[in-house]
Amino acid sequence: MPSITKTMTKAQIEALRERIEPQALSVTRPPYTYFQMKLPSLTITAYQSGKVVYQGQDVSFLEPSESSRDEETFPQAGSDEVGTGDYFGPVVVAACIVSAQAAPRLRALGIQDSKQMDDTRIRAIAPEVKSLCPYSLMIVSNPKYNAIHARHNMNAIKSLLHNQAYLNLMDKGHELPALCVVDQFAKPAVYYRHLEGQPRVVRNLTFETKAENKYLAVACASVLARAAFLDYFDKMAAKYDFPFEKGAGPKVDQCGRRFVERYGFEKLGEVAKMHFKNTEKIRS
Fold first, then answer.
1. Segment (H or E) for 27
2. Which of 125, 135, 189, 239 is most exposed, with minimal Cβ within 10 Å?
C-alpha cells in the first residue's frame, strides 16, 4: 500500500486532526502516537515523534491549499450568528453566498464584522446585501429557544442552526461553493458531534476563528444576522411597549426587573433566554 511520511509540529498535527476527524470511520491511539484515523481508503497515523504517515490513496485533498483557504476565493459561502450573548431577544444565524461579481460592490459598502459597525449602518446596507447575495436566515424566538435549550446547550443549538442555514440555501436551489466558512465557536469534531442523528449534515466546511474579519461571505452573514436581530428587537419593544436593553450586564438586570414588575415573571420567557444568570438576579 503506498504511503507518504511527513514531519509536523504538534500544532500542525492537532490542526490535521480537527480537519479530518469528522470524516473518519474510527479514531484510535496506538502506543507512541497521538492518534490513528481510518478513512474509507486511507489511514493516517500521527506519531509523538512528529512523523505523520499517510497510507492509501493520493492524499493531496487532505492538505488545505492556499487558494482553497484564501479569503479572495470566490464564490464563497459564510455563516455567523448574533444574539447568543444577549439576554433579551432571539438567536439569529445567517448564511450567504458571495460571488466574484458581487464582491467589489460589497466591499464598496464597507462591509465588515457587524460588531465593528454601528446599527444604523447595518440597517442601511442589509437590504443591498440581500439583493446581491443568496442568503438564509434562521431566527429563533425566545420561547422556542428556551424550549430547545432544555435539551441542547448553546453550542449544540448553534451547530444545528448553522447546519440548517446551509441546508436552506441548498433547498432554495443554490449550489454551495467549495469554500464554506463557519465563524468557529467549537472545534470541528465537537460541531459534527452535535449533529449526530440529523438526517442531513453539510460537511467539508472550513472553521476559522474571527472569520468575519477574513472572509467577505462571513462578514455579510454577520451583517444580515445583526439586521434581523435588530428588526426582531424593534418588534418586541413595540409589542410590549417596553424599552429592552441589549447585552447581559447590570443594566439588563434592572431592565428585567422593570419588565417583571409590569408583566409578571411568567412573561419573562417570552422575551429572554431564561438560562442566563440574569434570570436569578431578576428573580431575587
1. strand 26-28
2. 239
